[in-house]
Design goal:
Pfam families: Metallophos
CATH architecture: 4-Layer Sandwich
Shape: globular
Protein name: Metallophosphoesterase family protein
Order of helices and strands: EHEHEHHHEEHEEEEEEEHH
InterPro entries: Ap4A_hydrolase, Calcineurin-like_PHP, Metallo-depent_PP-like, Pesterase_MJ0912
Organism: Nannocystis pusilla
Distance between the termini: 33 Å
GO cellular component, one term: cytoplasm
Structural class: alpha/beta
Number of domains: 1
Largest sheet: 6 strands, mixed
Radius of gyration: 17 Å
Strand order of the largest sheet: 3-2-1-11-12-9
Number of helices: 8
Length: 244
């Protein structure tokens, strides 16, 4: 099975369309979105419409849960909370119902998918360091051979042994059966690794091979929609240019 995996679209239609065009060139068998289709960006309905149509699995992210009334987001900082409030008003009833029904977790054999840490799915904990990945050691036996996550907006990979965790620093690697793997796939619509290009990933389960990929998109167009159309916080548009 050749999976195309992506996450954290955050209502950025320009970035999403660029990633889907890239997937068309990759001979993908199944697309998987790891959550946060909404939040921050200017086009939540368009992104929901596309993601629900093209994916085999879409996971519930924390922004999705907030918009759908499935979690308390009163503690979010003001601009993020205001964006979620705006998205709640913009979403069609069909898209809202779709978000309300998304699962925290999906599996396809030994390949697992969730938004944050698999340790406690409803808490949406981050994994972007060896120390955070090590919290998965106690659940080693229940982990998939590889678990794909989003949430951090960073491209990170960790090989988890029964006693130790190693960060995998290459952009592509092959799976070794003595480890379990946690792969954070980065973000389509709000990258945070100082690279403004949209992030996506390819996993060939038959060959046991994984690969991070990036694609350029019209960042200026996406930012202008935030500034002029949605009139959300300027910071959400400005950060797209720097990938932070």
């Amino acid at each position: 099975m050749r999976y195309g995996i992506f996450s954290d679209v955050h209502a950025n239609l320009d970035a999403l369309e660029a990633v889907l065009r890239a997937f068309e060139r990759e001979k993908i068998d199944a697309l998987v979105c790891l959550g946060d289709t909404v939040g921050y960006g200017a086009q939540p309905n368009d992104c929901c419409d596309i993601v629900k149509r093209v994916t085999r699995y879409t996971i519930l992210g924390n922004h999705d849960a907030a918009v759908a009334g499935r979690m308390d987001y009163s503690y979010y900082y003001d601009a993020a909370r205001e964006a979620l409030d705006w998205h709640s008003r913009q979403l069609t009833s069909e898209n809202m119902n779709w978000l309300r029904k998304l699962n925290y977790f999906e599996r396809d054999g030994a390949t697992h998918f969730c938004h944050g840490s698999p340790v406690d799915l409803e808490e949406f904990e981050y994994i972007f360091s060896v120390e955070q990945a090590a919290t998965c050691i106690p659940i080693w036996d229940s982990l998939g051979q590889i678990t794909f996550i989003g949430h951090s907006h960073l491209c990170k990979s960790f090989a988890i042994g029964r006693e130790r965790v190693y960060e995998v620093v290459t952009k592509e690697f092959e799976i070794h059966p003595e480890f379990r793997y946690i792969v954070s796939v980065g973000s389509v619509g709000q990258p945070r690794d100082h690279d403004p290009r949209a992030s996506y990933t390819i996993y060939d389960s038959g060959r046991g091979k994984f690969e991070f990929k990036r694609v350029e998109y019209d960042v200026g167009a996406a930012a202008r929609k935030i500034f002029n159309d949605a009139r959300l916080s300027d910071s959400f548009g400005a950060r797209l240019f720097a990938g932070v």
